[in-house]
Every structure is written in C-alpha cells, then in structure tokens.
Design brief:
By secondary structure, the protein is of the alpha/beta class. The protein contains 16 helices and 19 strands. Bound molecules: zinc ion (ZN). Zinc ion binds next to loops.
C-alpha cells in the first residue's frame, strides 16, 4: 500500500476520484493508470466498509449481538469480526457532527428500553415513556437507580432470566462498603472490547501498541488481542514484582502501553527512579484514584512518556477517556451520561452535579439512570482535538490514598476486595482511622464472623501496614455520607493531617 501511495505521490487520505482522473488525463505512464485504478477500487472498498462498519453501531443489518454472542461463536477468532467493525466505527464516530451522535444515542436507548420492558422493575418504571418519541428529553421521567435500589430487590425483579446463564457475575463493594452483585452479558463484553480499543489507540496516536495491564484480577471486556495481563495483588506488591514487570516490558521489541491504577503507576514511577531504570513506554494509562497535577507530572517525567486517565466504574464500564489534549471525552456511543441535582433533575451544561449514566449494552441487568456515586461537570464546549463527544470534568471522586508517616501508601481500592472475599462473614463495613496506625472497623457481621475474625484482621494488617492496630466495633447502622451514600473509609485523626 505504501508503495502505491509513493508512486502516485498522493497521501492515502488524499486519494480522490478527481485527482486520479487528472493523473489519467495527462496521459502519463501506464503503470500510473494501473495504480490509480487500484486506488479507486481500494477507495470504493474502504468507503463501503466504513459505511458498513458505522452501521454496526446502530445494530443494523446482520450485525447483531445475538449472533456474535451465541455460544457457537464464543471464540476469540469470531469475536474479532464485530470487534473490528465496532472499533472502525468508533474511530470515525468520535468526529461526527452532534446530530449524528445524538441519533445513535436515541436508537440505542430505544433498543435498550424495548428489551428492558421484559424485566418487572423496568416494565413499571418505563410505563410513562413514549417509545415513538425522542427519548433523551423523557429521561427525567425515569427514577435514578443505584446499588441501594437494586440491593433492596430480588434478583428476578431487575434481571433478564434468559440472559443470566451466559452472563458474568461481578461483585463490588465500590464505595458503599457493602458487597453488591451485578451482571454483565456477552453483548456488553463485546462492545466493551471496542471501547477499550479506541482508548488504547488514542493514547498512542491512532496506532495500536501492545498493552500490559497491571491488575489484581483479569476482568472481561478489556482486549482480545495484543494484551498482556500482569498480576499484582495490590499497591505494595508492585515493589515485589518489579523485576518481573521490567522483564515483561523488555521482552517486547518496541514500545508498549502500560495500564493500571493510578496509585500503582505512581509507585512504579518512584521505583523506576529509585533504581535508575529505563523502560520503553509509548504511553501510560491510569484509572481509579484521581492524581494531582504534581503527581501526574512526576509520573510523566520519570517514565518519560505521557499519562492518560480514563474514567470507569465497575457497573457502568468505561464512561470517558482522555484525548491527546488530556481532556476527558464521554464515550457517548456507549452510554448516555447525565449530570443531575439531588432530585434527579438534569442540570444545565457547565453545572456540577451527580453523574448518572444509562449504558446501552446492559441487557441482562439494565443500568438506566444509574448513579455512579461520582460528581462532575459535562460541557458542550468544543475540544481542540476535533472530537465532537461531550467533555466531562470529574469532581471529588471519593477514592483516595491512605498515607503513613513512614512513606507507605495504600490505595483505598485495595480495601473492598478484602471484604468481598469475606462476604460470608461481614455484610457491611466501614473503616475509621483514629490514630496514625489505629483503625476501628465498624461492621455488620453475619453469624460466621467470629470464626473468621482473626484471619480478616491479619489480611487487613498485611494490606494496610504491619504496624496497623485493628479493633472491631459491631453495629447495626453505618454512618452515611452525602446523598445517603455509605462511607467505607473515614479519617478521624485529631488533629487532621495535612497532605501536600
Ligand atoms: Zn479532546
């Protein structure tokens, strides 16, 4: 292909029928005519394929999740076909005009609502919605949902039994301190791969580099190809596994994209500096804890590459990604994101509020107007990168870091998995830090708690700090935060510590 382009003297994206005709009319060498004909065929082919690929976003024609998620197609090879189409479409649609993006949202909302009507909870909730009219203006008629709303109901009320056997059960404590179980179906997984592909390509200038994902456990829906999972147990195990990670990065001929929680990437940067290592990195991607500009700069400086954040939650998937200008864009082909006030009414663009999202591909358990637990501002201002997807600024995510005076840092994200693991012994938890190394764990226990008490304390000490002193307090209600949301970590040291 590059040979053809060089002969014509025409850049790939500049080939047009008129230019090719102009070359032919001048009666130049015959092989140029051949090359031009070849270019025309390729141009038509690309055009047809793009037409087809962009239609896949709208679930038209034969591209249907039902086909590609059928058990007979449950192989990587087959999944690559819709993945290829979806990725191609998403790379184009991020630059489409607003009207076209909104049209996609309308169509995808309609498909979701039509499906959700089979589910008892949604059948009632969707009653006031007229499906033949524009749906986005009708969204305020629907309730705001949350972990709390679903936790109080029976599973059969909010899930589709037909999709449950093939869906993935996920569990999270998130920021509520209470394990919450939810489901993602194969259609969600399939679309999620393409959303990730767009993020991976964006961080490395449109080209897909190998990705090394540093994670505590492998989750579905990340990437199907050129993706390498690197297991760490938590923040502190980055140090213990540094040698293996460096070896893995160096085993690639070229550069790689590194991906992990912010606190882990920060720890990696500090270790790299401490030991004077050099890594060939194309970009670094981080999710989870918000990073201050100072820490961000520290990572970029030490690792010698750019850092990109993205915004995701366990239930709603990847809601926004950073562009080349480091502005967060909403994945609007994936979810309809609203910023609402405490009554659930949308606020005007540019105003701060709660982030609620409706994810189009959550058929087994629809997440419609689901409260992310985070706050933010959505803007309709244009971004210099040229993308037309709306931009979002996050405000005060609750995820932070626990710092000790000896320099040890623990991510709050490391705590919920411990309680997820002991869910049979503890129903809800809340950790209160009372002194530098003293923690009171308030819990709502189950009858099995006494049996597991020592083991859970040991696990907590291993994660927090070897000097941590754990005491238990049994309660029947935990302190709630703003908007009735439970808090799973509180710092009540006196006087309050000052962090830079
Ligand atoms: Zn941008």
């Amino acid at each position: 292909m590059s040979h053809v382009i060089t002969l014509c003297g025409i850049e790939e994206n500049q080939i047009s029928a008129s230019r090719i005709r102009a070359v032919l009319c001048r009666g130049e060498m015959r092989h140029i005519a051949d090359v031009a004909a070849c270019g025309t065929v390729m141009m038509i082919g690309t055009h047809l394929f793009n037409m087809f690929a962009t239609n896949t976003l709208l679930k038209k024609f034969w591209r249907s999740d039902r086909i590609w998620t059928h058990s007979i197609f449950d192989r990587k090879t087959f999944k690559k076909i819709p993945l290829f189409c979806d990725t191609r479409a998403l790379m184009a649609s991020q630059y489409w005009d607003r009207k076209r993006i909104e049209e996609i949202q309308e169509r995808r909302l309609r498909t979701l609502f039509e499906h959700a009507r089979r589910i008892p909870f949604w059948k009632d909730a969707l009653e006031p919605i007229a499906l033949n009219e524009p749906l986005r203006p009708q969204m305020p008629k629907l309730p705001i949902t949350s972990k709390k709303v679903f936790s109080e109901k029976k599973r059969a009320e909010y899930t589709d039994p037909a999709l449950l056997p093939t869906s993935q059960l996920e569990r999270t404590s998130g920021t509520t301190g209470k394990p919450f179980e939810f489901y993602h179906d194969r259609g969600y997984e399939l679309r999620s791969y393409a959303i990730c592909e767009r993020i991976f390509r964006t961080v490395s200038g449109g080209i897909r580099y190998p990705v090394i994902s540093i994670r505590a456990r492998e989750r579905m829906g990340f990437a199907l190809m050129n993706y390498h999972f690197f297991h760490v147990r938590g923040f502190n195990s980055v140090r213990h596994r540094l040698h293996q990670l460096v070896e893995l990065i160096r085993s690639f001929e070229g550069s790689v994209v590194l991906f992990g929680f912010s606190s882990w990437i920060l720890e990696l940067a500090r270790l790299v500096q401490e030991r004077g290592l050099t890594l060939r990195l194309k970009a670094v991607m981080a999710a989870g804890e918000e990073l201050s500009d100072k820490r961000r700069h520290e990572i970029e400086e030490t690792l010698g590459t750019k850092l990109y954040m993205y915004y995701a939650t366990s239930e709603l998937g990847r809601l926004a990604f950073e562009c080349e200008r480091h502005v967060l864009h909403v994945n609007e082909e994936w979810a309809y994101v609203e910023i609402v006030d405490d009554t659930g009414t949308p606020v005007p663009p540019g105003s701060e509020g709660r982030i609620v999202a409706t994810v189009f591909d959550t058929m087994v358990m629809p997440f419609i107007r689901y409260d992310s637990g985070d706050r933010g501002i959505v803007s309709e201002d244009t971004c210099p990168c040229g993308r037309t997807l709306r931009t979002i600024q996050l405000k005060g995510r609750q995820i932070t870091l626990i710092a000790f005076d000896d320099g040890r840092i623990v991510s709050l994200l490391d705590i919920p998995p411990i309680f997820d693991f002991y869910a049979s012994a503890i129903r809800q938890f809340q950790i209160v830090r009372t002194e530098e190394y003293a923690f009171t764990v308030r819990i709502i226990p189950t009858p099995r708690f006494e049996m597991r008490k020592e083991t859970i304390a040991e696990h907590l000490i291993r994660t927090l700090h070897p000097r941590a002193d754990i005491s238990w307090e049994v309660t029947d209600a935990l302190t709630e935060g703003r908007n009735g949301k439970a808090l799973y970590f509180m710092d009540q040291r006196s006087p309050a510590p000052v962090y830079v």
